[in-house]
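Would you mind giving me a polypeptide sequence along with per-residue structure tokens?
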Amino acid sequence: MLRQLLITCLLTLVGTLAWAEQKVDFSGHELHYIILNTTELPPKIAARYQIVRSGKRAFINLSILEKSADGFGTPVSAQIKARQRTLIGQIADIELQEIREGDSIYYIGSFEILNRDNLWFDINLSVTDGPGFEFSFPQQVWQEAK
């Protein structure tokens, strides 16, 4: 099921970002991130992870890989905090849930959105037995009719 979520995220990412990779490197690790409307999730996947599907909600998916010589990377756990900021200074924490399936580890949280809103996302993480890292990125979000 989680593989379906990842495939949905990746296909949407490729289609909407025209091959732009959303990752950042830090201290021998990679932080991969994506923001999508929750309507992009298949209903069964959303239900499994208690994510409300709505055109007025989006979700963030984060994963951390420790770089390896083979180029694939190894998923690692972390303590992660995420928040969103609007351009007028409103701040809201995003509650993240850790999802483990096999060797994969993801951190997912959903939040309400306004149409065509420009948001900033602040990520603060500490890799277990490893480095800490802070990262911010902008993302425009759109409400979708359901």
